Amino acid sequence: GIYIEDMDKFFTEAKNYSKISINGLMTLPPPDEEPSLYFALLNKLSKKNMLKYLSMGMSNDFETAIALGATHIRVGEAIMGPRDKN
Q: What global pTM score does this model have?
């Protein structure tokens, strides 16, 4: 992963590598914090860097993620049920 404060440097450096193509971003917000702040920030970074894909949101917050621009969501638990903790 990349820290938010390192994103500009990362995108600048990535342009030096012709065989690397960055097409999107993904985030997993901390489980004890409001995800919308993270989703909105990632959406802003995605637009700034003209990226096509934005993967964010899971079973418990995918509606918020979609409202804030997600193109991909992860809803395994909503479909398959809770994971076996064993």
A: 0.84
Q: Is residue 4 part of a domain?
A: no
Phi-psi region of 44 (alpha: psi -120 to 50; beta: other; left: phi over 0): alpha
pLDDT per residue rounded down to tens, the chain (86 residues)? 899 899 999 999 999 999 999 999 999 999 899 999 999 999 999 999 999 999 999 999 999 999 999 999 998 877 888 888 77
What is the Cα–Cα distance from 23 to 46, expressed in whole angstroms? 9
Q: Domain range for residue 55?
A: 23-80
- Give the residue from 68, 37, 40, 70 showing the smallest Cα distance to 55: 70
User: Number of folded domains in the chain?
Assistant: 1
Please, which residues have CB within 8 angstroms of residue 38's CB and are 6 or more apart in sequence?
27, 29, 56
Closest CA to 61 of 45, 77, 47: 77
